[in-house]
Design a protein that fits this description.
Elements lengths: L16 E2 L8 H11 L4 E3 L2 E2 H17 L5 E8 L4 E10 L2 E9 L4 E8 L5 E9 L5 E3 L16 H8 L4 E5 L1
Parallel strand pairs: 1-2
Antiparallel strand pairs: 2-3, 4-5, 6-7, 6-10, 7-8, 8-9
Length: about 170
């Protein structure tokens, strides 16, 4: 009969945190509180954040805003001539969310995306959540789009544009 040693995993203590409580506190302190609550202790407007807000509301609308699944016509690049051909081709937009931030003063979430399989450009969706947990597109005066991969420029620009942004999820 074999005896197996029981291993205990160091589970972090979850300290609950309401995202809206980040208004008026220092960005680093808010980010630390969010990390301590991640994922099961994080709430927004009193609702569980991870499944009910993030997965069920933010992700679907953000994917729609950035154009996931849309078919678009693009110009074809000719590597030999180092210019675009006169041809076009149809592609379906694909991508992956790589960032989630929160603007406490505006009460807006920011979802950053790497678009297409080579991360050749990035896109950002600004989202508000109503009192029932439903996501809505937030119109912002200035946005960050078009960089070759979210972390290859868009993230830095986002941090410059919104100095009070709180990082929730970096992927």
């Amino acid at each position: 009969m074999k005896h197996f040693k029981e291993f205990k995993v160091n589970e972090k203590k979850v300290v609950p945190f309401e995202i809206q409580d980040s208004v008026g506190i220092e960005v680093k302190a808010a980010e630390k509180a969010i990390q301590s609550a991640w994922t099961s202790g994080l709430t927004y407007k009193g609702m569980e954040f991870w499944d009910n807000i993030y997965m069920d509301s933010i992700m679907g609308l953000a994917a729609e805003i950035v154009g996931m699944g849309e078919t678009i016509e693009i110009d074809v690049w000719n590597d030999e001539r180092d210019e675009y051909d006169d041809e076009t081709e149809m592609i379906t937009i694909d991508g992956q969310e790589s960032y989630l931030g929160y603007l406490p003063n505006e009460d807006v979430f920011v979802s950053g995306w790497d678009m297409d399989e080579d991360s050749t450009f990035s896109n950002v969706a600004y989202i508000t959540i109503d009192d029932k947990g439903k996501a809505h597109e937030a119109k912002m005066k200035k946005t960050v789009d078009g960089y070759a991969g979210f972390y290859n420029g868009a993230y830095k620009e986002l941090k410059k544009l919104h100095r009070n942004i709180i990082d929730i999820r970096l992927d």
